[in-house]
Amino acid sequence: MAAVTPEEVKASELEKALENERSAYTKKMSSLLYMIGDIAKISESQVLMLSYRHMLVDKLVKYRAAVYKKKANDLNYRKLRYEYYKTSHNVRLEYREIKEFIDSDMALRSRQTDLLENQINFCSQSIDTLDKMGFAIKAKIQIEEMNYRNGI
Questions:
Q1: Which residues, 6 or more positions from 105, have their beta carbon under 8 angstroms from its beta carbon?
Q2: pLDDT at 99
Q3: How is residue 40 annotated by DSSP?
Q4: pTM of this prediction?
Q5: Which of 41, 48, 52, 92 lies 20 to 30 Å from 4 when distance is taken between CA atoms?
Q6: In the chain, what percentage of residues exceed pLDDT 70?
Q7: Angle ∠(40,42,43) on CA atoms, nearest 5
Q8: Which runs of consecutive H residues, i.e. helices, occur in 1-152?
Q9: Which one, of 31, 47, 41, lies nearest residue 144 by Cα?
Q10: In this structure, how many other beta carbons lie within 10 angstroms of the beta carbon of residue 55?
């Protein structure tokens, strides 16, 4: 049985943490949908919607900075691995083989970057959804005002 490397543990923990975060925001946004339907809870839903939106924007900025930093570190790591395979490796390798070895070495690092980029997409789409909820709230208020004026 192969030993689990620290990089594998790190990738797995990151995946779990990001999944938990997505689940939490999905629940929060789902609860907003029910609140929007109740005119008595419209103001509370607006406050929560804007709050969630702000939190997601903060997360988006944090994740984009992390991806930028990670890609810079990965580029440096790739250069170090190339140097290793070119100068210190036991077997002389062709360029194609070196590239394959480096890609293999980078697999877990790439997975972590992909996980962060996936989270960035989730945050962006969630922000879009919250913006659309804002329009839905506005429409609900207009409908209620129209119903009130028409005596319904």
A1: 77, 81
A2: 94
A3: G
A4: 0.85
A5: 92
A6: 98
A7: 105
A8: 6-37, 42-87, 95-105, 107-149
A9: 41
A10: 14
